[in-house]
Amino acid sequence: MSDPRHPAATAGGSSATAREHALALDAADPLAGFRVRFEMAADDGIYLDGNSLGRLPVATRSRVLAVLDQWSTELVSGWPDWIDLPLRAGDAIGALVGTAPGEVVATDSTTVNLYKLVQAAVELRGGGALVTDRGNFPTDRYVLEGIAAARGLELRIFDSDELYGPVEADLGGLGAGDVVVLSHVAYRSGALADMAALTAAARSRGATLIWDLSHSAGAVPVDLRGAGAELAVGCTYKYLNAGPGAPGYLYVAAELQRELRSPVQGWFGQSDQFAMERDYDPVPGIGRFLAGTPPILQLAAVEEGAKLTAEAGLAAIREKSVGLTKLVVALHDEWLAPLGFELGSPRDPAGRGSHVSVDHPRAWTFTRALIDAGVTPDFRGPDSIRLGIAPLYTSFAEVWDALDRLRAIAARDDLPDAPPARVT
Amino acid sequence: MSDPRHPAATAGGSSATAREHALALDAADPLAGFRVRFEMAADDGIYLDGNSLGRLPVATRSRVLAVLDQWSTELVSGWPDWIDLPLRAGDAIGALVGTAPGEVVATDSTTVNLYKLVQAAVELRGGGALVTDRGNFPTDRYVLEGIAAARGLELRIFDSDELYGPVEADLGGLGAGDVVVLSHVAYRSGALADMAALTAAARSRGATLIWDLSHSAGAVPVDLRGAGAELAVGCTYKYLNAGPGAPGYLYVAAELQRELRSPVQGWFGQSDQFAMERDYDPVPGIGRFLAGTPPILQLAAVEEGAKLTAEAGLAAIREKSVGLTKLVVALHDEWLAPLGFELGSPRDPAGRGSHVSVDHPRAWTFTRALIDAGVTPDFRGPDSIRLGIAPLYTSFAEVWDALDRLRAIAARDDLPDAPPARVT
User: Fold this and answer.
1) What pTM was computed for the model?
2) Whose C-alpha in A209, B27, B336, B402 is 20 to 30 A from the C-alpha of A299?
3) Helix and strand tally (H, E) in chain A?
4) What is the pLDDT of residue B276?
């Protein structure tokens, strides 16, 4: 209460709004020790955008340097060690999303991986529509739009509940031969879909469902096999902390691997890769979804990021994530709602992932002011401030301080509108 | 002649076979200073596999570290700097292959890029066959095979001259609507195709030609616009020294960009990328061939590698390359031919790129022994030893020493056959 940097704390209020409460939660945090596993400058402020680009793990810098050393000294002789890295990194991710070894491969971008799986699913079972919900991430929609046009298929975008994303009832229109893409956690609202229920709903209608785990893997426990999921893709540079533009991954359930073929046939998916004079004959396993030579520097970062997350454990990560997002919601209700904010995320922690959106018509102006005040959130137009919670390095005190600064900004009556700008 | 490590030199012979000749060429080499621009350990032997994986430039290590620092300290604020990197790196490559700015983008793997261009070309002008020559790199063939099967198109593989690759006459069977993929330098023989003549031949028959520059860019002057070429792809980890699995690139002539659409629609190809609630509307320029988030660490290495090559200049690189490959051929004729070798590359320097293949039924056994003797060549089954010449760091003395060791190995009558092994 006596910290002069936080006068708001001296104003009293409920225990949830007292900074001491946040400090006590940090003191009891079993994951607190993971904060130092990331590079963090003393002055780099409060980072609530790990849902867009995660921080650099200390081990990843060493690992990238080791790959540079290996390239420098072993040259082409490094390949026997590198060649299985897409599968090793894939298995490291698989351990976080509930798959068996050999069901995930890390390669290409999330977009390219989704393209491969949608094309492969249409080829195997298609003929129906390509389907997604309006709240899904745009690149998923663009992929479907392109394939639908190329193949002359119907593209069906269904309206999902703004806060709760696709719910089982919304899949009622699905028919046999449809291929559906849904996000496990919605990029805007943070709504967490019921993977098992939706997978069962799609399957019962003869549709093939592809999950996008980009905003859930690494922050939310995912159990692909337990949910009966057959296909998934995801991103590694958010909660898996693999760095800007690091490769994505894809999952194909073992049962489906032999009959599913990638549309992009390349030499890394070819069986007996170096017997060059043969027709294409894809490897039996998940490796058939490789195409060109995989990017080794960035795949090494993918493996490190996934291993660090596994070390912390997803149960602990989820528990802390829920605690942190509950604090955001509590402070929103107490401080921001009276200033005209609306909660843009599900109120029940069981129904949301690891980011919380707070919406306000002046969200862009507040975002710019927050950045000037040393807090990095994520803006999504037109009116949403996403507060990303990365439990491995976000503290309760940071959340408290960020919300405290946001309410001070929003309470100002002299804040000019920020000029419209390109948001990256 | 008195160097005790090189007893062969004391045996006399023509001037081309004297080690002093090689040393004199090195002494007069205007590119000799570029050798120290690459990391090279004192004991890492003679590396003649830069046509498979180039060495690590000193500047690239610094640049990768700078990107790590930027990720660490700027986090998501690094994106305004990173977001144009695929185009910047593309322009750096474009300066080496004869394009205007804005005609090349660095992204994805060579395989994925070829897939995108073949699909786009078929969509725009297709209906005919997909065509390539039997000597082309396997992944190019696999891509075509996959697309032909998916679209119900004919796949036509024509026999090319084993040494000279596709020649103009071989394109006689082309018809309107065909899409052809040819390598500028053949991966096995090193044959250098006549890009202008083949491009004109394809065009006169109404076919669309896509060049694969993987084994030429960075070692051989390429003039895409001068040759009238419309489309190309290539690799950056060979003569462009961008590191294991670094992204490839693609070229689309400016005139064609507006009408050509990538089959893989993703958010990095979308105009007004962050206005998320819109249908897909690709950017007007080469950026429409981006799909997912590009891998920044490895794209930084691409840009560095291309800039280093530009600094040396392709005229000087080509002149040295020709000198080095002429030395290989001369030493082959003098030393290896009597031991049962055959030259697997064109004899005329104007008709070959920067590697020379020497063929022998025991090539694999000799390759293993060469590696044991401190020389790294590249083996391509069943009988070819590829000697890759990277003029920025390969010296004439290294070529002389490598061939000297190879002849000593091949002359042994006690060398057991190497066990068959997976070649990487």
Assistant:
1) 0.95
2) A209
3) 12, 13
4) 64
